[in-house]
Every structure is written in C-alpha cells, then in structure tokens.
C-alpha cells in the first residue's frame, strides 16, 4: 500500500530527503552526523509529505492521525496555507493604527513628540519616515499650542482643587479676599 502511495507521488517522495535535511537539527550549514537527528528529520519530512496528500485516499493517514507529530504538522500547514496575504489581514487596519497614534513628552530631549503624520510644509525634527513603525517627530507651533491648551483645560479642575487644598493647609485667605498684587497697588495709586 505504501509503495502505491509513493509511486503516485514519486517526485514528492524524493523531495523528502531534501526536506529531511532541512528539518533535521544541525541543518543550518553544518553536517548532521547525529543519526537520531536524521531519523527525526526524516519522520518530520514524511509527516509533512503525508499531510500534503489527500487524507481520504491515504490509508496511512489513520495510522498517524492524532499523534504529536500530526498535530504539529497541522499547525505548520495552517501557517503555510495562510500565506502572506492572510498575515497582512491579521495586522491592524489603518484606522486602528491611526487610533493608536499619540503625543508624548520625550524625557531625553524635553520636547513633545508624536507619531501622527506631519502637516503640509512641516519644518521640524523627524526620526524615520512616516509609516515606519518607529517614526516620531516634534510638534509644529500650532500643534504644540493646541496640545498645551487642551492639557490646561484637562487639568484645570485639579488645579482649582489643589489651590483650595494649598490655601487650606497654609491658612491663606480665599481667592476673593486676596490682597491685590503690589504692581496693581502701584498702578492704582499712580492713576488715582
């Protein structure tokens, strides 16, 4: 029965010997003199060859179905069957990548950095090219102003609460009862 299967795919069967060399430990340029490694390589190559055949017509399939090597072959086959197209499909969409873009404070340079695309006519520091995984750049003046305004608005409730806590801790008067700054007193007395 095995002879009939082999005869049906003679070129594929001969390719087993090349595959066994590639799969065997020590195959990366070094000669594999380990008999056990060669045996393991041949077993893996045979399993791959059998997996590539139509298992319904393969009487040997029932002999190795459910074994550890058959399960590993199934996983390897799924990866190779998926091909490069499905690897791209599993990656993030442009919308998902855009949603992950952000602004951060670079501790090394003290600058605000972003991985958003640069605006037209951008004159600033860029590291890499937009689209690279590690692309980053400085913010332009408009972006920095907008970022600082948004940040100030975000922390304003905390600033007010912190100021009230500071005044309470140090026993300072409430803001409405604050004496006017010295510069303002001078201005009023000069105009008055």
How does this model look, in words?
The chain is mostly helical and 192 residues long. The protein is built from eight helices and four strands. Strands 1-2-4-3 form a four-stranded antiparallel β-sheet, with no helix packed on it. It is elongated. The protein starts with a helix and ends with a helix. The model has no long low-confidence stretch (mean pLDDT 74).
How would you state the average pLDDT, rounded?
74
Helix and strand sequence: HHHHHHEEEEHH
Number of strands: 4
Judging from the principal axes of the Cα atoms, what is the shape?
Answer: elongated
**Proportion of helical residues:** 55-70%
The CA-CA distance between the termini, in Å, is 116 Å
Q: Which percent range describes the beta-strand content? A: 5-15%
* Number of helices, counting only DSSP H or I runs of 4 residues or more: 8
The biggest beta sheet is recorded as: 4 strands, antiparallel
Structural class: mainly alpha
The parts where pLDDT drops under 50 for at least 5 residues are none
Question: What is the gist of this entry?
Answer:
This protein is mainly alpha-helical and 192 residues long. It is built from eight helices and four strands.
């Amino acid at each position: 029965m095995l002879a009939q299967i082999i005869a049906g795919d003679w070129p594929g069967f001969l390719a087993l010997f090349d595959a066994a060399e590639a799969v065997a430990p020590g195959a990366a340029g070094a000669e594999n003199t380990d008999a056990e490694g060669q045996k393991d390589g041949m077993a893996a190559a045979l399993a791959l060859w059998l997996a590539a055949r139509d298992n319904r017509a393969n009487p040997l399939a029932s002999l190795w179905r459910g074994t550890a090597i058959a399960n590993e072959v199934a996983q390897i086959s799924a990866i190779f069957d998926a091909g490069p197209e499905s690897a791209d499909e599993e990656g993030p969409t442009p919308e998902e990548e855009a949603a992950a873009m952000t602004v951060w404070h670079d501790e090394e340079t003290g600058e605000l950095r972003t991985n958003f695309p640069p605006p037209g006519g951008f004159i600033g520091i860029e590291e890499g090219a937009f689209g690279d995984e590690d692309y980053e750049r400085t913010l332009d003046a408009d972006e920095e102003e907008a970022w600082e305004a948004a940040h100030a608005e975000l922390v304003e409730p905390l600033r007010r609460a912190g100021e009230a806590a500071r005044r309470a801790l140090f026993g300072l008067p409430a803001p409405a009862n604050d004496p006017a700054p010295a510069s303002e007193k001078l201005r009023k007395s000069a105009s008055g």
